[in-house]
Amino acid sequence: MAIIKIIEDRMNADRDILEVGVQSILLVEDNIRYYSTYLPAIYKLVLQQSSEFLSEALNEQQQVLSKRARPKILFATNYNDAVDLYERYKDNLLGVLSDVGFVIDKRDSSDNEKFDAGIDLCKLIKKDKPLMPFLLQSSQESMRETAEELGVDFIVKYSKTLLQELSDYINREFYFGDFVFKYPDSEREAGRARNLREFQDMLVTIPDKVLMYHSSQNHISKWLFARGLFSIARKIEALDCKDFSSTEEIRITLVRAIMDFRSMSGQGVVAKFDPHTYDEYIWFARMGEGSLGGKARGLAFINSMIHRFNLYDKYDTGRILIPRTVVVATDYFDDFIAENGLQYVINSDLSDDEILSEFVSSRLPERLVDDLRAFIRTARRPLAIRSSSKLEDSHYQPFAGIYSTYMIPLTENEDQMLRLIGKAIKSVYASVFFSASRAYITATSNLLSDEKMAVVIQEVCGTEDQGYFFPTVSGVARSLNFYPIGEEKPEDGIANIALGLGKLVVEGGITLRFSTKYPKNILQLSSTESTLRETQRDMYVLSLKPEEFKTSIDDAVNLKKIEIWKAGSFKNMKYVASTYDMNYNQISDSNLAEGRKIVTFSHILKYDSFPLAEILVELLRMGQEEMKSPVEIEFSINMDVPLGQERVFNILQIRPIVESSSRGTINWDDVDETKSLVYAESALGLGLIEEVSDIIYVRPENFDSINTQKIAEELDILNTKMKNRSENYVLIGPGRWGSSDPWLGIPVKWSQISEARVIVESGLENFRVGPSQGTHFFQNLTSFGVGYMTISPFLGDGIYDVSKLNGMEAVEETEFIRHVKFERPLYIFIDGRYSKGIIVEQ
Fold first, then answer.
1. What is residue 725's DSSP assignment?
2. Cβ pair 658, 396 in contact under 8 A
3. Residues 6+ apart with CB under 8 A from 411
4. 604: enclosing H helix or E strand
5. Alpha-carbon distance 549 to 469, whole Å?
6. How far is residue 441 from each of residues 120, 433, 448, 669, 716, measured CA to CA in Å?
């Protein structure tokens, strides 16, 4: 083994040592008997050292890299080769082990051995690097006195304890094994650290004179180098005690350097969760051996991307990273179902409430409970418990927003916290079998029995304020903008942002919409009137009262919706709010002025207090290049941080925007849009849509936003009938389809309009609402290839021949809805290249 390793080390030395920074040990010995004894002994120690610091590795990949980072052995049998090796690799040399007598050149005969060549080598190296460890070994005991004069160690070759003495020297001087803190005057032990975590803790408590001794002698950097921790070792090696005004300043610098290193080491990897070693520096870990699920795969992808492109600290004003995350893999879902006998739920007719009750009253696997207990001991913020099913966020069926996400506050009582997190996980598991999930799975031609659920547990981005927890900014950004205005282009990207939790954004509430390339050109803020009318009215926050998290199919059971005019006292308002002066009918970008507060994000978008647009442009570009597809990113930002700390940009999710090749072509110059039933110049779609003969539309004359919930219920009934007949239809109505705010549109769930092949949002004279882009609902429309149009005929934007539809005999008619059927399939074409769409009777 030693023969193979020494050949490998010789071949890899330049690359590993000079390019990567791997450390080395120089052995100089010309006697075959002794180097055949030394080399196996040294390699045994080196490989043992390598296996010991594998505990620092977070996953298999880091373990492999740690093994490759072991010190290399440099071997010479003569003086000239020894000097050449020293000069070449001296900046990465742990120490030298040398015989006393050997030849000067490899061509010299052994008869010409220079009896003190090792002494010459020792003097040369000690003159160049006085602190370099050097061990002389000789068969002559008389050489011990010479070694002592040179200030180096010595062992006798004929000693019965030769290998033990060699081992002791290497462990002590090359800093293998534990780091032993010693008092400089007595060599008495002051403490011992087995790993980097214990070393960091010891640095805080060791006496000043012990700290100064080890710092001044470069012992700390040597120990780190020997463990393969090159980047932190080089950083600490470069420190000079003379540059610090006090020992305490050195202590703080060392601790901070190690904390930063441990944080960086946790970025970009998926660590295997170990309850014994898990701590706050491990950023992404997995419990279990099953699949991570789609959402977690996306998080692992973006975590790796942050690391590879050095995004973490690219911007001085903030850190870019995912929230601290643990994924409960799908094998725990299988175990939970099997151990509690819940397989019968798959084919049952239980209601959502009954299913949830069954799941919450069941027990999680014991080994999962043990891991969760270890995790919550390190939690520092409230937790989001999110779904991550096998089907979520795939390229063609993203399942966006189909399953539940629960948020729970952080409590000091460990048992109470464990109950909260357990209830949330079981509730997410139950959501697989809810009626809306079943309908979606059926619509995508999947089998319910094939779906597996992993769970993502993340710390919530934000800070506490008046009993609530929320971030400064939540948002969704997309690399494609299907509604460009002015000089914007579709490929410039688009973002929707809001104050508070992201529920408002993903469910279609009023948010601020801007092009990531032109963040200062915001249509909503183009006039005082539009700013007052079209900016955020409400915000979502998490209640920190544990008792408000109750078993419920509503995953927002403990979220509070607060009107913006009541949120003026929140600390985060100073980063996002402007003030309306009613006397002058003006809006000031200052939050300090007296008046109504309006969420405009001017401090961020206009004055660049945080480089949000720049970060989004970079992330969207990288995400699209890496995924080979347009992407959508969910994110949150916390700007409410203590003075001196960096603000945080958290990426919560990344998923592909589904696109398919257009079917068919059309020459718009030959189209007479005046003959169309519907014509739109703001449309998203997949080309020709065939075999649709039905139109279901909301009767404009009967529409009132107060009745939108009733309209949704009527649509649910009609959609079920169409589904039973395996027929599709065009759906037309005012406002935002799928909005969680019934005042902005009809609050349908996807299962209530699942048979629609084209959805049209038509503005009315007295009901003008922006489009649904940026919502989970919108994402699901595009994933199913559903045509999507927005029109405002009263403004000259598009055509809607409602009189034609009103004149037809109704297949079915309710208080708010009419269903008409044409004898022949309609001609429907949506051209995403030009954002145009048309529906014509054939």
1. T
2. yes
3. 417, 420, 546
4. helix 602-605
5. 14
6. 79, 10, 7, 41, 17
Residues 6 or more apart whose CB falls under 8 angstroms from that of 443 comprise: 754, 784
pLDDT along the chain (842 residues), means of 10: 92 91 92 90 83 61 68 95 96 93 91 92 95 92 92 90 88 86 88 88 92 90 84 87 90 89 72 87 90 87 87 88 94 94 86 94 96 95 91 55 87 95 96 83 68 92 96 93 70 92 87 92 86 91 96 93 93 94 89 88 93 95 89 94 90 76 68 91 80 94 89 94 94 85 83 91 68 51 73 87 94 94 94 83 90
Distance CA 13, CA 7 (A): 10
Number of Cβ atoms within 10 Å of the Cβ of 264? 17
Q: What is the 3-state secondary structure (H, E, C) of 295-311?
A: HHHHHHHHHHHHHHCCC
Q: Between helices 117-128 and 79-89, what is the axis angle to 10°?
A: 20
629 to each of 37, 479, 515, 655, 837, how far by Cα in Å? 59, 9, 19, 9, 23
Q: What is the DSSP track for 462-528? A: SEEETTEEE-SEEEEEES--SS--TT--GGG-EEEEESS-THHHHTT-S-EEEESS-TT--GGGSSH
CA gap 350, 27 in Å, rounded: 75
Copy the structure tokens of residue 424: 């949330």
Contact 563, 540 (CB under 8 A): no
The tokens for 539 are: 């915000």
Can you list the pairs that 780-784 forms with residues at least 24 positions away whose Cβ atoms lie under 8 Å?
780/398, 780/399, 780/400, 780/401, 780/402, 780/440, 780/750, 782/657, 782/658, 782/659, 782/684, 783/396, 783/397, 783/398, 783/400, 783/658, 784/443, 784/444
Given a contact cutoff of 8 angstroms between Cβ atoms, the answer to whether 759 and 785 are in contact is no
Q: How far is CA 142 from each of CA 116, 139, 156, rounded to the nearest angstrom?
A: 12, 9, 10
Contact 295, 402 (CB under 8 A): no
**Taking the mean position of all CA atoms in its chain, how far away is CA 745?**
33
Residue with tokens 């000069």: 87
Report the side by side order of strands in the sheet with 271-272.
271-272, 284-287, 325-328, 453-459, 383-389, 405-408
Instruction: Locate 374 and state its tokens.
Output: 């270890």
Q: Which two tokens stand for residue 47?
A: 């490989």
pTM over cut 0.90: no
The whole-number pLDDT of residue 793 equals 85
Other CB atoms within a 10 A radius of the CB of residue 706 amount to 9
Residue environment code for 90-125, b if the CB has 16+ CB neighbours within 10 A, otherwise e: eebbbbbbbbbbbbbeeeeeeeeebeebbbebbeeb
